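User: I'll paste a sequence; please echo it back and then give the predicted structure.

Assistant: Echoing your sequence first, then the prediction.
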Amino acid sequence: MTGKQVHSISRRGFLQRSTAITAGALVAPSIVPASVFGASAPSNLLAIGSIGTGRMGHGDMSECMKQGLRENARVIAVCDLDSNRTAHAKRVVEKFYSDQLGKSYECQVYSDYRELLARQDIDGVTISTPDHWHALCAVAAANAGKDMYIQK
């Protein structure tokens, strides 16, 4: 030995100490008042993507927009293979939020749900695809860490 003392720690002791340190680190940020981050902090807004904008998807998306106004959630992206559907959904979303918020609003359009799910700023998705696509989109959304509402 080179004069250094070797401390023996049990597995249980290590876990208890590391849990206490982690808990302290998690509590510390909650002490900062919300006013520090401002009224428009990104964490105050839930960003939603709508996958499938056909008949059922349009209804789900519209309801999400209406409910989202109260909960500070916004549809920021739409996705469908049919470019006519996505163009229509984009117009509906932008008009709705422009009218409700009193300022211009932009919604992104995707034809591939994987591109929409790759966005880190999207918190959740509505999935209103044909039945045989539900599971594939849902698994991809779960793997991407997104919350989801899915048509049965």
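Residues 23-29 have pLDDT under 50 and may be disordered. The first helix runs from residue 11 to 27.
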